[in-house]
Structure formats: structure tokens, C-alpha cells
Amino acid sequence: MKKSIVWGIAASLVSGAAWAHPGHGLTAGFAAGFLHPLTGWDHLLVMLSLGIWAARRPQGQGWQLPVLFVVAMTVAALMAMSWMSVSLAELLVAASLMVMGGLLMTEVSLSRGVQLAGVTVIAAAHGYLHGLELGSQWTALLGMVLATVALHGLGWWLGKQQQAWSMPASKVLGGVMLVFGASLLWA
């Protein structure tokens, strides 16, 4: 069983795109870049869930996570607009859905370093794939970054809600993300 899992991961790393991140049919310009994160479930779910999860960190610690995400995503997108391959980033995007889903479902306590490193890897994977799709469309990158900030803000607002429905809804969202991420890895 363990050998099959290792071979599966290895095959994913060297295979073509796993379609965790399809092109969404957008072409160019600021509007296309802005709509890009809003038209793919992988983007939408990860960015909202990061905002929710960050809002629930101890006082004064959470705000750095969405900021770090935007910075790392932008740097990775700029790198992708220049060079690199897609296989590992596809795998990481699918895995990021599962990681963020698991974090929403559980009340696991992570060290600050693990939080920052995890967010950096997740953001870099998403940014890299965004950058590949956007090509050299710099205005589209600006739109994508602004949409990401908006999604994190919405997630932050949702994460601060104190109504009885908010925690169970987060856990359901986390479960959906785990299943969706696993289905992308399986594809």
C-alpha cells in the first residue's frame, strides 16, 4: 500500500497537468485577471478558507497570513510569467485544498513558523499557476491580486462571525474542500 502511494505521488510530479487548475476560459486584461480567482473552485475555496482560518488565529497573529499569501502568490506568478514547469504546482494546488479543508475542520494548533511556511507554499503554488495562465498580462496580474485580497477579506469577515452557524459551516466547508482536493489528486 505504501509503495503504491509513493509511486502515485512520483507519477503526479512528472505527469502533465492534473487539471486541478483549468484555464477557466479567461484571456487577458484587468477584468480577466480579477475574475480569474472567482471562476475556479480551487482559488475561491482556498482563498476564502485562508481568510476564515486567519481570522480565528490568536489576536494580532492572523492578519499576516493573508498578507503573506498575496506577496508569495504575486512573486510566484511573476516567476511563472518568466519560466518553470507546471506538474508540481498542480499537485500543490490540489493538496492545498485538502490542507486548508483539514484546518477548517479541526482545531489543530500549529506553530507560527509552520503557519507561515504552509501559507507560503500554498500561495506560491496558486500564484505560479496563475502566472502561467496569465502569460505576460501584467494588468491581469493586478486584477488577480486585487480579487485575492477581496476573497481573503470576505473570508476574514466570515471567520469573525460569532453566530451559532459559523463554526459548523466552516467544518462543512472544510469537508467539501477535502473531498474536492482528493478528487483533483485522483483525476
Radius of gyration: 16 Å
- Helical content stands at over 70%
Separation, N- and C-terminal Cα atoms: 19 Å
Q: Determine the oligomeric state from the structure.
A: single chain
Number of strands: 0
Strand content: under 5%
Shape: globular
What is the SS-derived class?
Answer: mainly alpha
The major pleated sheet works out as: none
Mean pLDDT: 81
Element-level helix/strand string: HHHHHHHH
Poorly predicted tracts of residues: 5-24
Number of helices: 8
Give a structural overview.
About 11% of the residues have low confidence. The longest helix has 23 residues. It is built from eight helices and no strands. α4 runs antiparallel to α7, α5 crosses α6 and α5 packs antiparallel against α8. It is mainly alpha-helical and 187 residues long.
Q: How is this fold's topology laid out?
A:
Layout: H1 2-14, H2 29-35, H3 41-55, H4 64-80, H5 87-105, H6 112-134, H7 138-159, H8 166-186
Can you give keywords for this protein?
mainly alpha, 187 residues
Quick synopsis:
By secondary structure, the chain is an all-alpha fold.
